[in-house]
Amino acid sequence: MQTLIWNTLAPEQQRDLLARPALANADSLESTVRGIISEVRSRGDAALRELSARFERAPRDTLRVSAAEFDAAEARLGDDIKAAIRQAIGNIRAFHAAQAQPVLRLETQPGVVCELRTQPIARVGLYVPGGSAPLPSTVMMLAIPAAIAGCREVVLCTPSPASDEILFAARACGVEKVFAIGGAQAIAAMAYGSESIPKVDKIFGPGNSYVTEAKRQVSQDVRGAAIDMPAGPSEVLVIADETANPAFVAADLLSQAEHGADSQVVLVTDSPALADGVQDELARQLAALDRRDIATAALGGSLVLLCRDLDEACAISNAYAPEHLIVQTRAPRALLDKLENAGSIFLGPWTPESVGDYASGTNHTLPTYGYARTCSSLGLADYQRRYTVQELSAEGLKGLGPVVERIAEAEGLGAHKNAVTLRLAVLK
Amino acid sequence: MQTLIWNTLAPEQQRDLLARPALANADSLESTVRGIISEVRSRGDAALRELSARFERAPRDTLRVSAAEFDAAEARLGDDIKAAIRQAIGNIRAFHAAQAQPVLRLETQPGVVCELRTQPIARVGLYVPGGSAPLPSTVMMLAIPAAIAGCREVVLCTPSPASDEILFAARACGVEKVFAIGGAQAIAAMAYGSESIPKVDKIFGPGNSYVTEAKRQVSQDVRGAAIDMPAGPSEVLVIADETANPAFVAADLLSQAEHGADSQVVLVTDSPALADGVQDELARQLAALDRRDIATAALGGSLVLLCRDLDEACAISNAYAPEHLIVQTRAPRALLDKLENAGSIFLGPWTPESVGDYASGTNHTLPTYGYARTCSSLGLADYQRRYTVQELSAEGLKGLGPVVERIAEAEGLGAHKNAVTLRLAVLK
What we know:
The structure is a homodimer. Chain A is α/β, with parallel strands linked by helices. Chain A has three domains: 26-102 and 120-227, Nitrogenase molybdenum iron protein domain (Rossmann fold), CATH 3.40.50; 232-374, Nitrogenase molybdenum iron protein domain (Rossmann fold, 3-Layer(aba) Sandwich), CATH 3.40.50; 393-427, Single alpha-helices involved in coiled-coils or other helix-helix interfaces. Helix content of chain A is 46%, strand content 17%. The first copy, chain A, has helices at residues 11-18, 26-55, 67-76, 79-97, 136-149, 164-172, 183-192, 209-219, 246-257, 272-286, 292-300, 310-320, 353-358, 394-410, 414-427; strands at 2-5, 104-109, 112-120, 123-127, 153-158, 177-180, 202-204, 226-227, 235-240, 264-269, 303-306, 324-328, 344-347, 384-392. A six-stranded parallel beta sheet of chain A has the order 1-11-10-9-12-13, with helices on both faces. In chain A, α9 links the parallel β9 and β10. In chain A, α3 crosses α6 and α7 (183-192) packs parallel to α8 (209-219). The longest helix of chain A is centred in the first third of the chain and has 30 residues, at 26-55. The termini of chain A are far apart. The interface between A and B is large, with 127 and 127 residues. β13 (344-347) of chain A pairs parallel with β14 of chain B, so a sheet runs across the interface.
């Protein structure tokens, strides 16, 4: 990791250091994905079967995973992983169920009742990547809030073969409609529907650049589907002082770095000694990692920023807007009020990022690429829509009507005024 | 308005009737707007001044509205409109302040604390259209939740000249940075910043097709800005039975129709007599309207759907997903549990849409064009970001760590596991 002393840098250098790298290859990606979506829209399952034959590790004609396949997956899994998944589900369910909102009802003036209510989004699609490892955690993070919200239709797509862990987690989270197909074609199928895959209203989940681009494209079409959030490579920023354990910090940096060569890893510290200690630990721990090539590549693009004090560290983090923010300082909670624009914050030495990735209860679907400035951590609210209801009594309209008439007049909207005036005339 | 009997139609006819019309002219619009954004990004205020000279009714060199201009606007306005705006602000503020969420803190298992917190989005931009009438109501709807959320920077753009009502409402809602510039160039300026206009993180507000397209484009660029929601023409659906007052229903349909020739207006009723009565009232009320040409054009594209019963009426509304839904039936609240996909619902004879447009307390910024299936009514939450915090004690990690290790192993992510393992080793 490259080490820089923050306040020796010019403002433009500081800004460029914290900017995310441009995502490569955008034009050809866009047209390739557009072609796939168009094929799936026009030819449905026939196109999906052809794409399965071309791209899947285990191509299949019947895309939907059968009950027998679920049963077989469950039978093959050991009790320990099943128990671990069940415990994670319990925690995630508890934290997401606690996010439910009662109806907000307020009488803003006599006889004028306003309500804010929530409803589940009717049909949701979940995408779970395949790739180098099965990701049952993604199933849990996407499916549990859908079940709590009460979404009527929940569809899950994942590349073929769907791993045993994914099928077990899906069933444990109440998802029965699983289709073993991945890539942009899976996103297209969920956005527009095919003979076998139901159309959904909103699509959730991470994926490779094709999946991300497909989500972007269908979200731009009103006949397509909404999406959870825009996506970029995963990232972590660690704020640490001289009290931090260098081995812990290095382990946390590496658990981000092993995600992919494009993972972003930033350490911000006011302690040169801690920075040195972390570099030593990185070298030591790297050697023992299965995914050391990926992690090494990611560390090549990563940064150690030496800052003056923890206030400056917070300012750097706020400017970067990290997906994951780990705070290992003498009094981590004391920094909370100074921290902005982070997707999820991990406080103290006993809170590695991996607890939130899997099992503490928080959602691991978080805004990346600087989107944490405006986007939220995924939660129950993303599976719901908020809408308002209002009801005026006759007395309520008598009280409020003249105000509405006066503003409608100022806006030159005579019919808006008249809708009140003719009612008030009846009430006289 | 064209009248159709719903259950005599084929399913495809039903679907097509409820689909929104395609928005015209998309390609040339896209490139025109792309050009404007590029000009503003590269030349800043110089480009804005040129565009002001070309497009504004009152071109100006100094874009920011001065304190003296605010004072003069306030001095010119009558006390009655000021009082009306103040009363509306009071109701809107009360309903949006009630939406604030306390920190959610849950110990999901011993020593594992998860929190859901909210923070204001730091910098927001509000767009208030000019056009045929000043819209102080839009100022209130966009600025009040920004103030309650505590957004650090609030910028408002509106075409020049900014009306007295808009300036009065802006100041009354705590907005001091008002710039008299409209169109795609205003959106570009807020998304990227110029010498005089600060860059913001998220842009809110309605506008013409140039504004809407500019918002779409800047929201696709991570260096641009997020936006409130996608937009289309405004629309209302009224569910009425034989107990409804035809004059009230007609007045509500007209207050939607006067917005623009592309406004969508739908009446769904199980009573042919009510449908006839409404048609008669429409003809009568139209004659007296200032904006009757606009309203007549909108009604030309609008529908009366005769249905079998109120259950079918609810199903039609749910399929249409209206921005505004007015229910004038014998027992309107009894339908609430059957109604989905509406932006805002107005119950009963004394609740015309215009009370929500201006003053009841609910927000009038609502999802149009079918987006109500997944998008929410604008509220305090749109000016905030939700993020999670977690903190484990040593005991907490001892309890949860093995679960995390087991799932990390299943996912083949050794560094994720190691971040737990080396901590547990210290705790032994």
